[in-house]
Amino acid sequence: MNQDELPSADQRQLWNRVRARLKTAVGEDVFTSWFARLELEEIAGEVVHLSAPTRFLCSWVQSNYADRIVEAFRQDDEAITRLQVTLRVNGQPRQRPVVVADAALAQTSAPMPAQPLPSATVTRIGRDNAAPKGDALSGSGVDPRMTFETFVPGAANEMALGVARQIAQAAANNTVTFNPVYIHSTVGLGKSHLLNAIAHATQAADASKNIVYLTADHFMYHFITAVQRQSALGFKEWLRRVDLLLIDDMQFLQGKSATEFGHTLGTLLTGAKQVVVAGDAPPRDLEMLDERVRSRLSGGLVVPISGFDIELRRSIVQRRADQATARFGMHFPAPVLDYVARAVVSHGRDLDGAVNRLVAANQLTGELITVPLAEKTLGDLIRAHDAKRVRIEDILKMVSRHYKVPRNELLSARRSRDVVRPRQIAMFLAKALTSRSLPEIGRRFGGRDHTTVLHSVRKVEQMIKDDVELAQEIELLKRMLEE
Q: Structure pTM?
């Protein structure tokens, strides 16, 4: 063969024959997932040089199919004994070998043993070592500020914090204690912080660990992208080869992605891989998941985080104020900290926001940080949370009880009048009493489209205008939910 052309016409014809052999041998689905995006760069003597568009595909081919590819080439040219796969960036191969497989392996009857993926191709900690743009297998960015050292402990979260520390220590020592672990609470109480902290601590103890942190929406995005790219098998195998899987905002997982999570969870637990999940409701209330998956989550360790008491809120405010003092040199008097801890009762993010507002007010106006400044600056924040924070789950339970309709019927596709009307009222209440967006409400009501929610809201608004008795009934439900 002419080795000067890259590749020559003869080499391209050989590569087409090899591709046809591989497709016949492994089938259409496997070929599409693993071989369709490989390109021949050159054949130089005994070495075949292929390229792939992602690091993951390079690693997977080298670990599982190098021998088969070499054997397919040897049917035409027995001089070929080695395979080299490199990463293709912007259409050009990067001249760094990923694997060299000796053809002697291809001549044995036993398959080539799978090798661990290099940690850099799977571990997604922070943004600096994120996957190249366009790589469907990149994880969600981990916040470098969310560590165990920056987590403020208290009675409300001490159990969750203790479990999180134990998970990180066990993962670093290649052991599993509780599995799976499910942490749940309302928004802003520290679930995401603990998942990030577990990831940071585990990687700090053992940088070779394959750690994947994904929010539920990223999980869905990656799965859907993999299906569109016809590489769903690759996505599944990638997840099943991790050492520590962290899934956040579980309540937003919907559709086929929820089904795929169930399969992944079962495989990881069977292989004793650590799984930690966080959501805003207990596992039994995650209606989007199969009953078997909810049962698996419930059968692990379920850890709730309760609402913050005054002592914990005061500790959080003190920590944030100390950080602002160290950075800007300003002074937070104790009465101001006490006032913020008493007045802002919602969650940790609002406490952070309160301190940030006081810092901004001080810098912009030059006023000293005092209780009167706090009253003036935080007035809308405090008034916004004077009433009880209503959750969609509370609305579903109230409407189910009031109209004697099972909760699962409200989330189902049933269209009978005795179900549709309570469902529409529940959606109306969710829009009126929570800060959730229409798409979020739709997801919580069985994965419905936001236009369905909008139609329900407008329908109930019209019914209230036309039916005084219904208007009084809905107003009663509102008061009961806000009590």
A: 0.53
